Amino acid sequence: MASVLIAGGRVLDPASGLDRAADVAVKDGKIAAIGPGLARPGVDRVINAEGCLVTPGLIDPHVHLREPGQEHKETIASGARAAVAGGFTTVCCMPNTSPALDTPELVRFVLGRGEQSAARVFPVAAISKQRRGNELAEISLMARAGAVGFSDDGDCVASAGLMARALAVVKPTGLAIMQHAQDPTLTKGASMHAGEIALKLGLGGWPRVAEEVIVERDIRLNRGIGCRYHVQHISSGETVAILRRARAEGQPVSGEASPHHLLLTHEACIGADGLGYNTMAKVNPPVRETSDMKALREGIADGTITVLATDHAPHTDSEKALPFEEAPFGLVGLETALALYIEALVSSGVIGWMKLVQLMTVGPAKLCGLDRMGLGRLEVGGPGDVTVIDPEVKWTIGQKDLVGASNNTPFLGRKVKGRAIATVVGGEVKWEGGR
Ligand SMILES: [Zn+2]
Fold first, then answer.
1. Is 292 in the active site?
2. Distance 255 CA to ligand 1 centre (A)
3. Rounded to the nearest whole angstrom, what is the distance from the C-alpha of residue 245 to the centroid of ligand 1?
């Protein structure tokens, strides 16, 4: 295996608090040394990181890779290529494939495909059989097979009875339950945020309370059980407040925010000509209002939200060309997330670089138990996963930047700043470019 020297950057490692100018040497798949002026003779490849941030490999704990079953939208291999192009060395994929990831065999299938891919790929397995919300899947067997969390993502675990059983059964695995919080009886026929734009466009409105009641309920169910509980893609400002209260009580709960919920409001669903619709901004849960965006940012600044996640959700052009109510929910995010987080959080002064890197490394590693494998930090002897970020490079998001199999994003044409210019996974350079 080739050795790599990442030279002359500012090394940021939130896990240890390290923030200094240093080189990082990677050899035999592991971090070999971190320090100033490391020797270059014998090094196979030098990456010039002057003016750049050198961080632990970024981790995205919430992506949809569509394999098995919908390989025309994305595959594990194409999704992993999109990941490394966005600076991610590890992704955790959701179980709403067909068939759903609800058996140990399917967990092993994803892990096997992941091993042949550009990034590390870990499956989040289904909570219920076929994600139907009726009967628990084989939780402990899937944990043993290598699942890194449990979720019925795409759908909510709507039954309180099933959620109570799931919390009790997942708890001894040490893994987290990740809830797509959405009471389906409140969102029937809804396709965007319940507000004045939905009224104007004549579309069914999706109320904030559909998310809030599920999060309140689950936290209450979990009292006395104490399973790790995580709220996926928070969209409502009030959900942040619920989470803040539960964390203050010492409950083992966490939450995540996605780029689109930090940057877009329901106005993004209006077509570019001011008429019609923009299906690219149709997402589940929906983008809401400025007050929600503000509450999410505050939740990140005060430590209520500890994880950033893209919810990368590829769909074909023809699917997104359908009328708004028929078009599928979701947008791709792996290639663009870093620049969008920088815009929403760092350039706007909400948090600094160290905190951003923490939300993209330590936070997701802990959520999915990947910290036990040494992921999410830079440590001599630990996995050789490193991301090099040029914080100043300016670029406009274009089709050519979307290296995954799908192009559905409302951010095409957006001028952004900051980008991963090299991504090293297990000691191998899997991506270099972007400047
Ligand atoms: Zn979801």
1. no
2. 12
3. 23
278: buried, middle or exposed (CB in 10 Å: 19+, 13-18, 0-12)?
middle
Euclidean distance between CA atoms 374 and 123, whole angstroms: 18
pLDDT score recorded for residue 332:
97
Question: Where would I find the H helices in 202-316?
Answer: 209-222, 237-248, 259-263, 290-301
- The mean pLDDT of the chain is 97
pLDDT at position 56 is 98
- Is residue 378 domain-resident? no
Q: In this model, does residue 272 exceed pLDDT 90?
A: no
Centre of ligand 1 from the C-alpha of residue 50, in Å? 38
* Overall number of domains in the chain: 2
Same domain, 211 and 251: yes
Same domain, 359 and 390: no
Query: pLDDT tens for residues 152-199?
Result: 999 999 999 999 999 999 999 999 999 999 999 999 999 999 999 999
What does the pLDDT look like over 226-254, one tens digit per residue?
999 999 999 999 999 999 999 999 999 99
Identify whether residues 48 and 65 lie together within a single domain.
no
Domain region containing 415:
4-53+383-432
Q: Are residues 394 and 292 in the same domain?
A: no
CATH code, 409: 2.30.40.10
* CB contact at 8 A, 83 and 91: yes
With bands split at pLDDT 50, 70 and 90, how would you rate the model's confidence at 274?
confident
Considering the candidates 153, 311, 371, 390, report the single residue annotated as catalytic.
311
Distance from residue 213's CA to the centre of ligand 1 (Å): 16
- β-partners of residue 179 are 231
DSSP 186: G
